[in-house]
Amino acid sequence: MERILKYIHASAAYRQGIFGQGILVAVLDTGISPHTDLQGRIAGFRDYIRQRPQPYDDNGHGTHISGIIGAGGKGAIHGVAPGCYLWSCKVLDKNGNGKIQDTCQAVEDIVAYNQRHTQKIRIMNISVGMLERVQPELQKRLLQCVERAWDQGIVVLAAAGNNGPGEHTVTSPGISKKIITVGSLDSCSETRRELSLYSGRGPTASCVVKPEIVMPGTDIISCGTRQGSYVKKSGTSMAVPIVSGIIALLLSKDPSLTPNEVKLQLYRSADRTGMDRRIKCWGTIDLRKLLSVY
């Protein structure tokens, strides 16, 4: 994570005392393990697979993502927004598989939660994905759910998927026109930025440019499921939480921003330096520019 924090210039936020404090981020994934680095960061847990009451992760994917967003405990890993809180929804099983119906239910439950509480979930990190034109009715319901959450004030982010490099390979709900879709870079250089070969690419069937944002997603080290353990993972799933953490920092600075305003700030501050012109996206995010543009 140290190289990621350096790449996004996280110190630009930290020097201002911005650590994501007061921001609640929902992670829809395989669950969350009470890792040392996540102590005090887990605000809620809901198990849609086995209905267990206590946080757990029998796969590790969700814990890894949660660490990227907000690890800030007593261990070695420092997440992008170590002052934020995490709300884990286990919608994927130990093999990383799940039902779209469970994901939709989790999204709907989060919207309902916000209607009942003053401390609202502001960001939703989704790594569930299905290819375009697959199960159209389920895809339609998933898109409707995430777009309703967006309209209710939740910044929704989804992975572009790992089915690249061909066109039209962005997975749903990442094809939504409203939500923010994130792809993966292999290079962390500021002068050369190469899209990961596996990263899903647009345009979508509706000719929408996707993903909007690309961030490093290869060989990212974050929390493992065992206490004090760390693992290395790659994929667009690892790129999404970097942006979720960045947005948590932005919302911590100004909680009044709407999802559309957040998306506009990302667009205005995106940097395409060193990126192949054939790659259709906005670019990467540098916190120095994002916070100054804001």
Automatic annotation (TrEMBL):
Single GO molecular function: serine-type endopeptidase activity
InterPro entries linked to this entry: Peptidase_S8/S53_dom, Peptidase_S8/S53_dom_sf, Peptidase_S8_Asp-AS, Peptidase_S8_His-AS, Peptidase_S8_Ser-AS, Peptidase_S8_subtilisin-like, Peptidase_S8_subtilisin-rel
UniProt keyword annotations, A-Z: Hydrolase, Protease, Serine protease
Entry annotation: catalytic residues: 29, 61, 237
GO biological process: proteolysis
Domain Peptidase S8/S53: 20-276
Statement: the UniProt record of this protein carries the keyword Hydrolase: yes
Assigned protein family: Belongs to the peptidase S8 family.
Protein name according to UniProt: Peptidase S8/S53 domain-containing protein
Annotated organism of origin: Eubacterium ramulus
